[in-house]
Amino acid sequence: MHFVTGGAFNGKGKWVRQQYPEDTAWFSATEYDTWPAPDEALNSIVILEGLEAWIQRELDRSLSTNILLDRNMNKAEAWLEWEQNKDNRKLVLIGTDISKGIVPVEKESRLQRDITGWLYQRLAAHAERVDLIWYGISETLKK
Fold first, then answer.
1. Beta strands 2-6; 129-134: pairing state
2. Is residue 118 situated within a structural domain?
3. Spatial separation of the C-alpha atoms in residues 23 and 69, rounded to whole Å
4. Are 112 and 56 in contact, with CB atoms under 8 Å apart?
5. What does the DSSP 8-state code read for residue 22?
6. 89 and 83 in contact (C-beta within 8 Å)?
């Protein structure tokens, strides 16, 4: 799995498009309300973009942070399993870094920030490669 993160509007998508062929399956939070489920019919590269948006849409303040984190990690792990089931599969996850700046006043925004940060830590630990993109420039953090 390849995890790509960086600031909002810093060129993550453009950078990923330059790294992978055009015939990839691309699922974006701008088009899908929730994490798409893995599809066994897909047998090449799958890119999931907008992890922070999917986390925000699924926030339920009545649930504990551990349950919310596990719920999102389970969705990522389903895709990791998809990737590992066949040799020619590659998973690329793109998530915006929302940890910088002033801590939000609203409880829900803080919860999203926390869950997102914890999820990204877990994804980075699982990833074969992690790239940070700022202003269109990549820095490989893990390879």
1. parallel
2. no
3. 31
4. yes
5. T
6. yes
Domain count for the chain = 1
39-48, 101-110, 133-142, range with the lowest pLDDT: 101-110
| The pTM of the whole model exceeds 0.90 | yes
Domain-located, residue 125: no
Query: pLDDT tens-digit profile of 87-130?
Result: 899 999 999 999 888 888 888 889 999 999 999 999 999 999 99
- CATH code, domain with 46: 3.40.50.300
* Segments forming the whole domain that contains residue 50: 2-102
3-state secondary structure of 92: strand
Question: 34-67 burial by CB neighbour count: b if 16+ within 10 A, else e?
Answer: ebbebeeeeeebbbbbbbbbbbbebeeeeeeeee
Residue 16 lies in a domain: yes
Q: Cα–Cα distance between 44 and 83 in angstroms, integer?
A: 9
Quickly list DSSP for 36-85.
PPP-TT--SEEEEE-HHHHHHHT--TTS-HHHHHHHHHHHHHHHHHHHHH
SS3 content of the chain, % helix, strand, coil (to 5): 40, 25, 40
